[in-house]
Amino acid sequence: MINQFEANETIHMIESENLDIRTITMGISLFDCADSDSDRACEKIYDKITKKAENLVKTGQDIENEFGIPIINKRISVTPISMIAAPGNCDNYVKYAKALDRAAKAVGVNFIGGFSALVQKGFTEADSKLINSIPQALSETDIVCSSVNVGCTKAGISMDAVKLMGEKIKETAQLTASSDGFGCAKLVVFCNAVEDNPFMAGAFLGAGEPECVINVGVSGPGVVKHALEKVRGCDFGTVSETIKKTAFKVTRMGQLVAQEASRRLGVPFGIVDLSLAPTPAVGDSVAYILEEMGIEKCGAHGTTAALALLNDAVKKGGVFASSYVGGLSGAFIPVSEDAGMISAASCGALSLDKLEAMTCVCSVGLDMIVIPGETPASTISAIIADEMAIGMINNKTTAVRVIPAPGKKVGDVVEFGGLLGTGPVMNVSPYSSEAFIARGGRIPAPIHSLRN
Predict the structure, then answer these.
(1) Distance (Å, rounded) from C-alpha 183 to C-alpha 181?
(2) What does the alpha-carbon distance between residue 270 and residue 27 come to, in Å, rounded to a whole number?
(3) How far is CA 334 from the centre of its chain?
(4) Is the CB of residue 172 less than 8 Å from the CB of residue 139?
(5) 357: three-class secondary structure by DSSP
(6) To 10 degrees, what angle do helices 236-265 and 303-321 make?
(7) C-alpha dist (Å) from residue 384 to 36, 119, 167, 366, 438
(8) Which DSSP string do the residues of 242-300 spell out, in sequence order?
(9) Cα–Cα dist 370/425, whole Å
(10) Total structural domains in the chain?
(11) Confidence class of residue 12 from pLDDT cuts 50, 70 and 90?
């Protein structure tokens, strides 16, 4: 039960502290849409998505209006298209991406994820076709998101896939040069990708998921920041307890919305992803939380320790609020989407190397980072390899979403708008990794993967 004080507190969080539900994401299985005729398969995909999700946006808006809780995005995730397109009779999967785009627009969602492949141990023929289609698919669609899993703790890292993804990111940037490489903002490379992630651009519906499911992603960096303002000067035990209690409240709201959406849509409730997802709005920043702990500027020494505390406390608080916590769950540090990160990167306090260190203790990885357009594909692949190694060795999900902005150099700024924000172009090492990436093959799984 919620008492009057708690209700008033939640209203204050929404009105003054940027509390919201970041996304309601409907996962839709497309296994029954596979067909040897690719055109027929695309028709099935369109028909199924538009039928299953026809009331998703309206339901989200109704809940938002009735409960007074902002729901920023309504999204769809689908079965990895490389699995669905495999029986088809075409060498290019762009038509599948266009079918997803049409269906998502027809039902009015913000994004659809699942133009994806899982290649941590190697490529099927369908995987190769999908990955080779990514640049064209993302340049010729508007709201389709793509992801490729190239490594995991159990299998190691496919360096052939890492090399190829560096090249495809570069190609995607060139094909979307008129929008500063925006296509790359819709493309994520994963290690240990999860099957129930509601956040874009990496969402897809895994093979072990239901026919249709509702997953919700909460937010709330501004709420945590305001809570910590009340305990300035206190020790880290108090800081952790404060974050835990705040994460509990935020997650309970997410659970309420998820269950209500599930009931109204007649679709099973899956998980609440309790990740702190920032926005470019002032005050809604993970970086500001770290600075509230005593770091003068995000990126200074101590930042990684502060982030480790934050990530752990968020999870501890969230798991008490919901029996079904999943997705990525923790703290996101996307540079262009976080006002504090943008500021820290712009003044030089935050470097790519420091961000990599921070990814060892938080959710996901190197996210929404703009780099010079002239960066070689092999360097992009090496950045991916480093991040995949962190995920593989630490048995956690890591990812890379970098944007080599064509024609842009360090110090320039790229404007993406909306939740994607502003990206200061960050410096990368000038030294080559080409010979390393050219080796190919697979980095073996670590010894602690042998746990059966």
Answers:
(1) 5
(2) 9
(3) 9
(4) yes
(5) helix
(6) 50
(7) 34, 14, 11, 9, 14
(8) HHHHHHHHHHHHHHHHHHHHHHHHT--EEEEE--B---SSTT--HHHHHHHTT-SSTTS
(9) 5
(10) 1
(11) low
Determine the pLDDT at residue 417: 77
Virtual CA dihedral for 318, 320, 325, 331, nearest 10 degrees? 20
Q: Would you say 216 and 198 are in contact if contact means Cβ atoms under 8 Å apart?
A: yes
In this predicted structure, what is the pLDDT of residue 102?
Answer: 97
| pLDDT digits 0-9 by tens, 178-225 | 999 999 999 999 999 999 999 988 999 999 999 999 999 888 788 888
**What's 183's domain CATH number?**
3.20.70.20
For residue 145, give the nearest of 347, 407, 419 by alpha carbon.
419
pLDDT > 90: percent of the chain: 70
pLDDT digits (tens, 9 = 90+) for 51-82: 999 999 999 999 988 888 888 889 999 999 99
Ranges 126-130, 188-192, 307-311, 420-424: which has the least confidence: 420-424
Q: In sequence order, what are the residues at sequence separation of 6 or more whose Cβ sits closer than 8 angstroms to the Cβ of residue 58?
A: none
Task: Please state, as a whole number, how many other Cβ atoms lie within 10 Å of the Cβ of residue 184.
Answer: 30
DSSP states along 219-245: --HHHHHHHHHTTTT--HHHHHHHHHH
Query: What is the domain range of residue 108?
Result: 1-452
- Token reading at 120: 């941590």
Question: What is the rounded CA–CA span in Å between residue 112 and residue 105?
Answer: 9
CA–CA separation, 138 and 434 (whole Å) = 26
The C-alpha atoms of residue 30 and residue 54 are separated, in whole angstroms, by 16
Tell the residue number behind the tokens 């709330």, with chain if given. Answer: 220
Q: Which two tokens stand for residue 298?
A: 């995000």
**In residues, how long is the chain?**
452
User: DSSP letters along 405-438, please?
Assistant: ETT--TT-EEE--GGG-EEEPPP---S--HHHHH
b/e per residue 91-120 (b: at least 16 CB within 10 A): eebbbbbbbbbbbbeebebbbbbbbbbbbb
